[in-house]
Amino acid sequence: MILALAGGVGGAKLAHGLQMVLGADELVTVVNTGDDFEHYGLRVCPDLDTVAYTLSGRANPETGWGLAGETWAFHGQLSALGQAPWFQLGDKDLATHAIRTSALRDGRTLSEATRSLTRTLGVPSRIEPMSDDDVRTFAITDEGALAFQEYFVRRRCEPVVERLEYRGLGDARPSPGFLAALESPSLRAIVICPSNPYLSTAPILGLADIEARISAAPAPVIAVSPIVGGAAVKGPAAKLMVEFGTEPSAASVAEHYGDLLDGFVLDTIDEPLAGEIRGPRVMVTASIMKSDADRARLARDVLSLSEQL
Amino acid sequence: MILALAGGVGGAKLAHGLQMVLGADELVTVVNTGDDFEHYGLRVCPDLDTVAYTLSGRANPETGWGLAGETWAFHGQLSALGQAPWFQLGDKDLATHAIRTSALRDGRTLSEATRSLTRTLGVPSRIEPMSDDDVRTFAITDEGALAFQEYFVRRRCEPVVERLEYRGLGDARPSPGFLAALESPSLRAIVICPSNPYLSTAPILGLADIEARISAAPAPVIAVSPIVGGAAVKGPAAKLMVEFGTEPSAASVAEHYGDLLDGFVLDTIDEPLAGEIRGPRVMVTASIMKSDADRARLARDVLSLSEQL
């Protein structure tokens, strides 16, 4: 069994590749919930939904997030009623948030709500939230503290970030499914997907004693760089690195994860950096995932590296 | 100024007629909120919305409720995800609930949320909820206690009702707009619209000392019968009368309101009953509202009766 740790679009793509090359019961994807928020009374979990839509084959292929064939009557009506809506909630996507909100109000955990939703969406493998407790990422910026979606969507990552706060993280327990996967005797590898190291994987790795548990697990830990050629494939990872005084490079990602890693995957374009990376076994391969075939190939490369470790 | 007390479709139609024949600042419609409920985390106010959609000219002309030109992608997706949704929430209609829910979560009152929503919807006259406090109508039936929408929509009024409970009514205060309208020196008439006497107007009249305030107001009180030819024009009013051991007739409606009434309007088909009604001045007129012209004509008749009282 492979445990993948993922944020949004980039993580979902590699998780999808792993799902394609593994059996349905051989993959558990644990997803960041620090991006979650309440919007118009509904609980929205952007990363969980991106992963679920991607793994069920329902994701919008143009955006990477949201549902294919989405309609926008709700969004248009909000605009018509003067709301200037800054977070795009499609009509079909709203059903996901409504069902989840209803389940949570009925006292079910986010893990239970996610299991039920992913089953009805038709996700073949398992998706687990990193925690059933609320963690909320805030960007402390030159414009003040911004809740994650305010920073990420409303302000399009434009404010300069001084630091990030993961509110609630100190008290949050890893989800039962996350702990079970880490303790599973059949765990063959832990894959840190090409997600933002600060916004997506930091909340997952920052939970309780998760880093110690990952280090202690006999399975190798492999990260795939979300930085290719000095730029983020998607999102503000490189911009944040600059703001944090770090060179935006695949090598900096490897350094960020440090001793946690047994293996590290970087793109062929970054081959010159391979020699700089101390510690993990480095694999150089084509890591940009434009097609399903790209996803499956990268997944196979990652699994092949894990077997060497 | 005219104060109209209304529930859903029937009340909305007469309020619309009054709005057509009066100036925009000459009508205040106070609406039942006993039908309100929380659905998938959203605050839904069916009667307020029916009145607002009708008075803004946005109502679906075929159903009387909901928005014209509605789409159902959200509803379809709920079904596709196995939810068997029993309450129809259109994609555009959802925007109303989302905006209201957001306003209430931000600490605004239902009156404030309603004022803002009705303005953006383009309602020319004023609509006020009966109360800013929660009142929830329950039908105590042969299948047990059913929350109003469970009884009305999910079970299509099929269970036999033993009695109705208006939970929260004892502690609910009339809304500031309701009280202001009753105390206005320009109040010319109080019109009890052709709404269900038990489900729609009983919660309004049962608030605090509202009945005493209405009796004490110098303006005449006129009710329009929702029962025509022994049947309800719409909804379960006649069925409830039978279950409560009352003959379903316009005369029973007049008796129900009793001393509160100065005037009573019944349909031409019920002319033979006019002599039975003791107390209020009776007007016999065509009360079925199939067109906007019907609404305006009935409104003119009601205002003409009020001027005689």
Which descriptors would you attach to this protein?
three-stranded antiparallel beta sheet, globular, alpha/beta, 14 strands, Rossmann fold, 309 residues, homodimer, seven-stranded parallel beta sheet, 12 helices
Q: Please, what is the average pLDDT of chain A?
A: 96
Structural class of chain A: alpha/beta
Q: Return residue spans of chain A where pLDDT drops below 50 for at least 5 consecutive residues.
A: none
Largest sheet of chain A: 7 strands, parallel
Basic shape of chain A: globular
Q: What's the name of the CATH homologous superfamily of chain A?
A: CofD-like domains
Q: Report the β-strand fraction of chain A as a percent range.
A: 15-25%
Oligomer: homodimer
Number of strands of chain A: 14
Kindly report how far apart the N and C termini of chain A lie: 15 Å
CATH architectural designation of chain A: 3-Layer(aba) Sandwich
Tally of individual domains of chain A: 1
Largest interface: A-B, 30 and 30 residues
Task: Tell me the radius of gyration of chain A.
Answer: 18 Å
CATH topology of chain A: Rossmann fold
Count of helical stretches of chain A: 12
The percentage helix of chain A is: 25-40%
Q: Give me the strand/helix succession of chain A.
A: EHEEEHHHHEEEHEHEHHEEEHHEEH
Strand order of the largest sheet of chain A: 5-2-1-9-10-13-14
Query: Which CATH top level class of chain A fits?
Result: Alpha Beta
